[in-house]
Design a protein that fits this description.
The complex is a heterodimer of chains A (291) and B (423). Chain A has 291 residues and is mainly α. Chain A has one domain: ABC transporter involved in vitamin B12 uptake, BtuC (Orthogonal Bundle), CATH 1.10.3470. Chain A is 75% helix and 3% strand. Chain A is built from 11 helices and 2 strands. Chain A has a two-stranded antiparallel ribbon. In chain A, β1 and β2 form a beta hairpin. Chain A is globular. The N and C termini of chain A lie far apart (42 Å). Chain B has 423 residues and is an alpha/beta fold. In chain B, 44% of the residues lie in helices and 17% in strands. The radius of gyration of chain B is 24 Å and the shape is globular. The longest helix of chain B has 32 residues. Chain B has a 5-stranded parallel β-sheet, with helices on both faces. In chain B, strands 7-6-8-9 form a 4-stranded parallel β-sheet, with helices on one face. Chain B folds into 2 domains: 186 residues, Response regulator (Rossmann fold, 3-Layer(aba) Sandwich); 173 residues, Rossmann fold, CATH 3.40.50.2300. Chain B is built from 14 helices and 14 strands. Classes of the chains: A mainly alpha (291), B alpha/beta (423). At the A-B interface, α1 and α10 of A face β7, α9 and α10 of B.
C-alpha cells in the first residue's frame, strides 16, 4: 500500500520535474544558452494562466491557453531583448560571451521576479485545474489532475522526441546542437534555428508552468527555487541531454518522495542535493552528459 | 568640448542653487503657519498581502487621527519603507528613517526574522518600535530579559504562545464541545514562530479535549504535501491542526484536491485574506483559521467601520496585520497626546499606560513582570481574535460565540465524528 502510494505520487511529481527541466536543457543543447530566467518564464505562464482562468473567470482551458501564449511571448522577449544583443555585441569578447548571457538572463529573471511580485503580490496562487476529483488506483486515492499532469508531461516529451527525430526542422535543431558551424556551411540560417528553438522552448515552458501552477501553486517567490531545481536536474542528467534530463528528473522525484514518506517531510530536498554534490565530484558530465 | 561641458555643469549648479534658495524663501511662511508633522516610520514587505496591509492600515489610521486634529495640534505623517522581506534591507531602512527622516517611532513587519533583526537597533537608537504582525515569542521575551535596553520594543500583536491559546480555546468551544472531536494531528511549517506554537499546542490541546496523536513539521519549501496528509490520515484523527503562515495556498489546495477526509483548522494565516478564495480556486472551502477579525464582525464599535473603510479604499478585505497596525498607531498617537511629547522615553511611558478600544478589542500591553513584556494582553475582555471558516466563497465567523455569524460547515469529502453528523 505504502509502496504503491510512493510509486504513484513519485511518478507524477517526477514527470512534472522532467517537463519543467526539459526546456532548460533544450535551449542549452541547441544554442548553448544557460537560461537563468527559466523559473521566471515558468512562473509568468502560470501567473497569466491564473489571472485569466481564475481572476477573470475565463475558465481552466482559456487560462491554460493564455498561460502557454505568455510562455512563448516571454521566451521570445528573453531571446530578443537579452540573449541576442549579447550574442551579437562586438564589445564583448567571444570567450566571455557565455558568461555575459548567463549574467544577462540571471538579471532578467530577477527583473521579472520583482515585476511579477509587484503586480500579483508574492502570495502564492493556484492555476485552475483542468479536471477535479479523485480516482481510486488499487486503494490509493489519487487526484485526477495528478494523472492528467503525468499524461500531458509524457505527451509533451513524446511530441518533442518526434519533432526532433522525425521532422526536417527538428533535425536542424539536433544538428545545431551537435555542430552549428557545419549547419551554417550547409546553408541553413542559424538565426532561424535559434528562433525555432526559443519558440519550442516557450511552448514547453508554458505547459510546464501551467501544470506546475495547478499542482504546486505559483508565486514570484518560487522563481529562484524553480530555476535551481531545473538546473540541478539538468546537471545531474548531463547538460543538453534530453534523455538524461528525464532520467535525472525521475531519480530526484523518487528520492524526494521516498525521503518524505520514509524519513521526514522536512528533509525532503536533502538527499537529492547530496546526490548532486556526489555527481559533481565523481561524474561531472552527469548521467548522460556529452561534455 | 570639455570646456563646454564644464561650463554647462557650472551653469546647471548655479541654477540649482538659485532654485533651492528661492524655494527655501517661498517655503518660509508656510512653515510658520502649519505645525510640523510628526513622522512615523513604517517597515513592511509591500509585495506580500500582510505587508501591504500594514502600510494600507497605517495610512487609514493617520487619516482618521488627522481628521480629528492630529496629536497635540500636529498632523501625523508616514515614511513608508519597503523592506522586501529582507532583514538587511529592514535594518538599513530603519536607520535611514531614524537618522534622516527623524521619525518618532517605527511600526510594522509581519516576519519574525525581520522583527528580531530590528530589535537591537531599536534598543541602540532608542527608537520606539511596534511590531504588528510577527509572532515569535522572543520579540517580547527579549524585552523581559533586558528591560532597560529593550523597553522601546512593543509587540502589538500576539506571541505564538497566545496564538496557540486562541486555537485551543476554539478547539475547546467548537471542535470538542460542538463537533465532538477527540483527537488531532498537528501539522506545522518549520519556522521560528512555530516552535513555541507547537509547544503551545502540545500543552493546551489535551486540556481543550483533543488528544494530540502526532506533530508533523515540514519544510516551508515543500512542494508535494501528499506524504504529509497520508501520514496524518493513517492515524485517523478527527481534525488536522495547522500552523501555517509562510505556506498556505499549496497545502490547502492539495488537501482539497486529494479530498483528505480530515477537516482542517488552526492557524492558516493566508486564509485570513479575502484573496485566498481565488488564490486556491475555492479549495479553501470549509477551512478554519484564527485571525484578528473578519468582514462583518464587530469585535468593537470601531471594527466594522474600519473594515468597510479599508475595503472601500483598497478593494480587498483587511489582512490580520491591518487591524493590529491600525490599533498600534492609535495607541502610539494616544501615548504621544497623553505625554505631550514625542521623545522616546515619553512614548514608552505613554504606551505602557495604553488602555484604549481598538479594532481588535481592548488594547493594553503586558508589564515588566510578564515573560511577554510589552506584548498585547490576550484574553476575554481584551483581545481574543476570532475563528473564521470559508463557506461558499465568504469568510464566516464561527467563534467566539458572541461574535459568531455562522455554524461550522464542511465539504462533502470530510468525515466528521458520528455524533456531530446529527447536527
Amino acid at each position: 500500500m505504502l509502496i504503491l502510494q510512493i510509486l504513484i505520487d513519485g511518478f507524477a511529481i517526477s514527470a512534472l520535474y522532467a517537463l519543467g527541466a526539459l526546456g532548460f536543457t533544450l535551449i542549452f543543447g541547441v544554442s548553448g544558452v544557460l537560461n537563468l530566467a527559466h523559473g521566471a518564464v515558468l512562473v509568468t505562464s502560470a501567473m497569466v494562466a491564473w489571472y485569466v482562468g481564475t481572476n477573470e473567470a475565463a475558465g481552466a482551458l482559456a487560462g491554460a491557453a493564455s498561460g502557454i501564449v505568455a510562455g512563448v511571448i516571454t521566451s521570445f522577449v528573453t531571446y530578443a531583448v537579452v540573449v541576442r544583443p549579447i550574442q551579437r555585441s562586438k564589445a564583448i569578447p567571444e570567450v566571455e560571451r557565455e558568461l555575459f548571457v548567463l549574467t544577462g538572463t540571471l538579471l532578467w529573471g530577477v527583473m521579472l521576479q520583482i515585476g511579477l511580485g509587484y503586480i500579483f503580490t508574492t502570495t502564492p496562487v493556484t492555476v485552475h485545474q483542468l479536471v477535479s476529483g479523485t480516482v481510486n488506483i488499487l486503494g490509493v486515492r489519487t487526484p485526477t489532475n495528478e494523472i492528467l499532469i503525468a499524461v500531458i508531461s509524457w505527451l509533451t516529451l513524446g511530441l518533442l522526441w518526434l519533432l526532433v527525430n522525425r521532422t526536417p526542422a527538428g533535425k536542424r535543431l539536433l544538428a545545431a546542437s551537435i555542430n552549428p558551424r557545419g549547419l551554417t556551411l550547409m546553408g541553413v540560417e542559424l538565426d532561424q534555428v535559434h528562433l525555432l528553438a526559443w519558440g519550442i522552448y516557450g511552448v514547453i515552458a508554458g505547459i510546464a508552468g501551467v501544470l506546475l501552477g495547478s499542482f504546486l501553486g505559483t508565486s514570484s517567490a518560487y522563481i529562484p527555487a524553480l530555476t535551481g531545481t531545473a538546473f540541478s536536474i539538468v546537471v545531474l542528467g548531463g547538460l543538453g541531454s534530453v534523455t538524461g534530463t528525464v532520467i535525472a528528473a525521475y531519480v530526484v522525484g523518487y528520492i524526494e518522495t521516498l525521503t518524505a514518506y520514509l524519513i521526514s517531510p522536512s528533509l525532503r530536498a536533502v538527499p537529492a542535493l547530496i546526490l548532486l554534490v556526489l555527481v559533481l565530484y565523481f561524474r561531472p558530465q552527469g548521467i548522460l552528459g556529452r561534455r | 568640448m570639455k570646456q563646454t561641458s564644464k561650463r554647462r555643469v557650472i551653469r546647471a549648479l548655479g541654477a540649482l542653487a538659485a532654485t533651492t534658495a528661492l524655494t527655501a524663501i517661498a517655503m518660509q511662511p508656510v512653515r510658520a503657519d502649519t505645525p510640523a508633522p510628526i513622522e512615523i516610520g513604517i517597515t513592511a514587505s509591500l509585495s506580500t498581502i500582510p505587508g501591504a496591509a500594514i502600510a494600507n492600515a497605517a495610512k487609514l489610521a493617520i487619516a482618521d487621527i488627522n481628521a480629528k486634529g492630529g496629536v497635540n495640534g500636529h498632523p501625523l505623517a508616514l515614511v513608508i519603507e519597503d523592506n522586501q522581506t529582507s532583514a538587511t534591507n529592514a535594518v538599513s531602512s530603519f536607520q535611514r528613517m531614524v537618522n534622516q527622516d527623524h521619525v518618532v517611532a517605527v511600526v510594522g513587519t509581519w516576519i519574525s526574522e525581520v522583527a528580531l533583526a530590528l530589535e537591537p537597533w531599536s534598543a541602540r537608537l532608542h527608537m520606539p518600535f511596534l511590531v504588528t504582525g510577527a509572532a515569535s515569542n522572543d520579540i517580547s521575551a527579549f524585552v523581559h530579559k533586558d528591560y532597560a535596553a529593550h523597553k522601546y520594543v512593543f509587540h502589538a500583536y500576539f506571541p505564538s504562545a497566545f496564538l496557540a491559546e486562541g486555537v485551543c480555546d476554539l478547539a475547546h468551544d467548537v471542535l470538542a464541545d460542538q463537533l465532538h472531536m477527540k483527537s488531532a494531528v498537528v501539522i506545522s511549517e518549520d519556522a521560528a514562530w512555530t516552535k513555541p506554537l507547537d509547544a503551545g499546542y502540545a500543552g493546551c490541546l489535551p486540556g481543550a479535549g483533543l488528544k494530540v496523536l502526532k506533530e508533523i513539521r515540514f519544510s516551508p519549501d515543500t512542494a508535494d504535501f501528499t506524504p504529509i496528509f497520508q501520514q496524518a490520515e493513517a492515524l485517523n484523527p478527527d481534525i488536522i491542526i495547522s500552523g501555517w503562515a509562510h505556506v498556505g495556498v499549496q497545502p490547502t489546495v492539495q488537501w482539497a484536491d486529494q479530498k483528505v477526509p480530515v477537516p482542517l483548522a488552526g492557524i492558516n494565516a493566508q486564509a485570513g485574506s479575502s484573496a485566498f478564495w481565488k488564490a486556491t480556486n475555492g479549495g479553501t472551502e470549509g477551512v478554519i483559521t484564527t485571525s484578528t477579525s473578519a468582514p462583518g464582525v464587530a469585535n468593537t464599535p470601531l471594527t466594522i467601520p474600519f473594515t468597510d473603510e479599508y475595503q472601500k479604499a483598497y478593494g480587498i478585505s483587511p489582512a490580520y496585520s491591518a487591524y493590529s497596525t491600525y490599533d498600534a498607531i492609535l495607541a502610539l498617537a494616544t501615548a504621544m497626546q497623553a505625554e505631550h511629547s514625542t521623545k522616546p522615553d515619553a512614548i514608552v511611558a505613554g504606551l505602557e499606560k495604553t488602555d484604549i478600544t481598538g479594532t481588535q478589542g481592548r488594547i493594553t500591553f503586558l508589564g515588566q513582570s510578564s515573560p511577554y513584556t510589552h506584548a498585547l494582553r490576550f484574553g476575554p475582555g481584551y483581545v481574543t481574535g476570532v475563528a473564521i471558516q470559508w463557506q461558499s466563497g465568504t469568510q464566516k465567523c464561527i467563534w467566539p460565540a458572541n461574535l459568531a455569524n455562522a455554524k461550522p460547515e464542511f465539504p462533502g469529502f470530510v468525515k466528521l465524528p458520528k455524533l456531530a453528523s446529527a447536527n
